[in-house]
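Reopening this ticket.

The earlier resolution said the output was attached, but the attachment link was broken on my side. Pasting everything inline this time so it's all in one place.
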Amino acid sequence: MNNRWKNALWVIPTYGAVALIIGYIIEGKPVWNLVISSVIAGFLLSVFIWPRMEKKRLAKEKKTQTNWEDNRND
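Inline output:
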């Protein structure tokens, strides 16, 4: 199992639990629409959005590192 799915297995229940607790504190009862939407948001973030952001960040760092090395050789 790769890191993307391992992170998802931690993030999804965490987002759901936090939403359940916050909904219970604010409304006095669980707000299931909030819990379900938070679980979906956690899934989308951990599986799709964060890996893309990480990939872009690594590419930018690699490009910057290459530029530094090129400037040293000049």
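Reporter confirms the inline version is readable. The chain has one domain: 3-73. Helices lie at 3-27, 32-73.
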